[in-house]
What does this fold into?
Amino acid sequence: MLDLAITGATVVTRAGVAPADVGIRGSRIARIARPGALETASQTIDARGQLLLPGAVDPHTHLDAEMFNLHTIDDFESGTIAAAAGGVTTIVDYAFQERGGTLAAAVEKWRAKAAGRAIIDHSFHIALLDPTPEAIAEIPRMVEQGITSFKIFMMMNFEARARDFLRAFRVAGESGALLTIHAEDENLIGYCTEMLLRAGKESVAHFAASRPPLSESAAVKRALAMTQMTGAPAYFVHLSSRDAIAAIRRARDKGRAVLAETRPIYLYLTEERFLEPHGERYVGYPPLRTAEHRGAIWEALADGTVDVVATDHCSWTLENKLSANRFTRVMPGMSNLETLVPMLYSEGVAKGRISLERMVDLVATNPARIFGMYPKKGVIAEGSDADLVVFDSERKVIVQSTEMHSRADYDPFEGFEVTGWPSITISRGEVIVTDRREDARRGRGEMLRRAPFRADWRST
Ligand SMILES: [Zn+2]
It folds into this structure.
């Protein structure tokens, strides 16, 4: 006897896209059967005419984070509800090390933020901000405890400590950890910013020019050299520009363990947005680019150079975003967890730019594999967690912040017409969202222990 059966859907599995019935016992997928061949279940969801996808895995979120003395408006309650409503059933959030602080303390602090709030499963990367000998010595212990990735920000406080970071890279590589790298060159940005401000160009209209594509590609190339020297595998977060992508492609062709992520804003928006009234809404690091770069990112999604689409969800109120009097002080980031899957389906799959299987790789299977959660997460397979999304590929939705579950009072994709939206989200066998209505116990989400990085992750 099954606990739950989902029948009649077109299911995306490792074997491809085909009609199948999926049976769940407890928290796991017990059986995938040809249509009509499943044993009886105490509850059945009739999903005829819909797709059944693995729950998405977003390995880049910032919930309950603090920047410039302000708190993001989404914590682990509203943030994971927004995620679940959009078909995301696992997140990996960034736990920030404090200056002089231990890595263990960072994880503990973030675990407490999620406890009692998160409605989906989650894990943490550690943002390594202060690579002291003590912090570096902690890296292998963290990996043993299932925290297997570390973030390096190249755009701030990096230059002065580059040698310390190199030591951290080596230890991370030797410990089986993956480095996630924010690649923007601190000095080039500092120089461009200074030139603009000196010329009195302080408004958000000049934001993109303060962090040009060259500041990204230069940092990617430098990080590639640093990780090659130290033997550490590198995962580049939120890539936004053509030459940075080309540098990744070249390193990959030489057999290096180099991975690439992009984020939704670079796929759907361009830098003209900064000229609009309230252009501050779209500020994130790195900035929006021209249509040429947007095209390069889409190409890289289709040809396999980019491995993951993740949100970098970091939400603020409009008041927070508009409070700055110059571009350097605008709070970076925006809310987009709920739109990740439906917009990639609508703009990518429905418009023929990528296949459905490729979309599932980009938002579920690849991030689960890369960050040590596969096959528990990221795939519809017998024995995997029953994290599933019944997806209505015909449903039309106009993005409106008032309908979204994030506490942000604006949406960067306001007014976008989207074809395809999740109708049911299931986490470990429990239905937690139905038709955009969430019904889940706060704190039901579990913290995941992740496996070390494997260079052969594609074949795991
Ligand atoms: Zn981020």
In short: Residues 213-230 form the longest helix (18 residues). The domain at 56-377 is CATH 3.20.20.140 (TIM Barrel). The pocket of zinc ion is lined by residues 60, 62, 312 (CB under 6 Å).
